[in-house]
Protein: Adenylate kinase family enzyme
Organism: Herbaspirillum frisingense
Amino acid sequence: MRYIVIGTSGAGKSTFAAALAESSKCPYIELDQHYWGADWQAVPPAQFEGAVREAIAGDCWVADGNYSAVRELLWSSATHIVWLNYGQGTIFRRLLWRTLTRGLLRTKLSHGNRESLRMAFFSRHSILLWAWTTFGKNREKFSRLRVDPQYAHLQWCEFRTPRQARRFLAALAEHSASSD
């Protein structure tokens, strides 16, 4: 199985993908870790694509993210798409909590980056503003991609609530435990 977990910023893609990878006994590929360098600077496109190409070389993996720069590479190799298609309120509450927690605790992310409360609340580059303004566009984009004949080989799992996603993971973990 080769899964890609998609959804609007703050939906919980990384958390879900890490749990899915663990249950599936597959490597977890956090696309943000390959895309961002130090000081929140994007790595050169060729470097990003090369890192992703290397990461998906195996028969089993779980990746998370919505990077159009590597969509063709990822989606043509994947077997499943998991769409965390939660409501805007759910996503915004999750993102607000994550942003506050990371900002207050000064949580180190990949390459030593940290989320900034100043940036989150007082910048036009705010992740909160980004998630709010791209929510509808992302839903439309993913709906179009779902019916795109180019990706007809993909099996889609769409979850409209966190509860549905948790049930899926629990069932997968139960199945995995019983097959050991």
User: Anything to note?
Assistant: Residues 127-147 form the longest helix (21 residues). The chain has a mean pLDDT of 92.
